[in-house]
Amino acid sequence: MKYFLIVGEASGDLHASNLIKELKAGDAEAVFQFWGGNLMEKHGGTLLKHYRELAFMGFWEVLINIFTILRNFKQCKRDILTFNPDVVILVDYPGFNLRMARFASKHYLKVFYYISPQVWAWKESRVYQIKKTVDKMFVILPFEKEFYSTYNYNVDFVGHPLLDAIADGEDRETSQEKPIIAIVPGSRVQEIFRMLPVMVSIKDQYPNHRFVIAGVSSVSSEIYQKFLSEQDEIAIEYDNFDSVLNRAEAALITSGTATLQAALLKVPLVVCYKGSFFSYFIAKRLINTEFISLVNLIMGKEIVAELIQGQFNKMSLKQELDKLLQEGPKQEMLNEFNSLRYKLGGPGASAKAAGLMLGYLK
Fold first, then answer.
1. What sign does the CA torsion over 294, 21, 89, 190 have?
2. For the chain, which ranges sit under pLDDT 50?
3. What kind and span of H or E run contains 197?
4. What's 218's domain CATH number?
5. Are residues 134 and 256 in the same domain?
6. Is 157 helix (H, G, I), strand (E, B) or coil?
């Protein structure tokens, strides 16, 4: 069968790559084309456009890049029709993928959605569009199945794919000469410009620690170096996220899937986020959840500190990091991380999702 996948960011590339591997195991004649990333390409198939060309974060950023985005819509539609797949598999990235779902459905193509848009956080009305245009939805958060059931829409809960992608954090490498503080500024250039300067600003106040940036190779090294001086002695390790976290005593992480990944690796963390004033102003009025981090959302309470917009500053960041380096608060957070893993269910999400997809297609 022919599969067309659309991914818009690094975490989607990771999860889609594991899905591709499992689909190939169950379908010896599988052919893949996709808008995605390097990890997907390693598992076979044709990469038509890299997700780094799609990464526009926030309302203002979307507005000023609207013509590029519109060209991307047109090109993706052409690519889908040219390939004529048996199924279009959309992975998260709702701003783009919900439009592609509508397009594919109009052309009588089967549409699967893997990793639900966060419609429970804002714009719940999108559920009605999903019901019309998505044949099957595969969710990864335990509360999402119940959420969709209130709209009489049956979805499949497959568990979280991160449980397949990472170890359980038991065998962490913490015996370095100097303990490491991991810095994870995000995978988009806009995120890095906003997050990294504040994250590295506290480095001098921790002379007994070593700071390591978990970078992504899809972003030029010059972007990272722009915020570092020769005296900083801050290392950058590219595409080595798990390894950096496995050696870290604590982490400063931009809000996103990486926060959940760190929690599953049992790394105490501070969640950080800062958008443009315009984007934050709009989001504040649309989002109806108490928290922004997946860790806190899944647990239904504040487990990790969230420093958002004005709260994300040098003083607050140091205060929260100091807490993580104290044995009491650190151990309390790690105990909650054990409960988090239990809530997410067992491993095997990628295989379960692929098995269900193949069953529905046959």
1. positive
2. none
3. helix 189-201
4. 3.40.50.2000
5. no
6. strand
Which H or E run includes 278? helix 277-286
Cβ neighbours, 10 Å, residue 60? 18
Residue 61 in domain: yes
Of 174, 173, 228, which Cα lies nearest the Cα of 204? 228
Q: What angle do CA 66, 70, 72 make, to 5 degrees?
A: 115
**Which pLDDT score, from 0 to 100, does residue 172 have?**
58
Q: How many domains does the chain have?
A: 2
pLDDT recorded at residue 166: 76
Same domain, residue pair 211 and 137: no
pLDDT reported for residue 144: 93
Q: How far apart are CA 281 and CA 114, in angstroms?
A: 30
Does 355 lie in the same domain as 339?
Answer: no
d(CA 158, CA 136): 12
Q: Which among 83, 29, 40, 1 is positioned nearest to 357, based on CA atoms?
A: 1
Beta carbons of 255 and 271 less than 8 angstroms apart: yes
154-180: string of b/e by CB count within 10 Å (b at 16+)?
ebbbbbbbbbbbbeebeeeeeeeeebb
Model confidence over 266-293: pLDDT tens digits?
Answer: 999 999 988 766 555 555 555 666 788 8
21 and 126 part of one domain? yes
User: Within this chain, do residues 212 and 355 fall inside the same structural domain, yes or no?
Assistant: no
> 351 is written with which tokens?
């295989």
Pick from 4, 1, 17, 2: nearest CA to 239: 17
Residues 216 and 156 grouped into a single domain = no
Q: What is the pLDDT of residue 11?
A: 83
Cα dist from 161 to 113, 126, 183, 217, whole Å: 14, 24, 23, 22
For residue 256, the enclosing domain spans: 180-343
Is 175 contained in some domain? no
Given this model, what pLDDT does residue 287 score?
61
Q: 326 and 352 share a domain? A: no
9 and 150 fall within a common domain:
yes
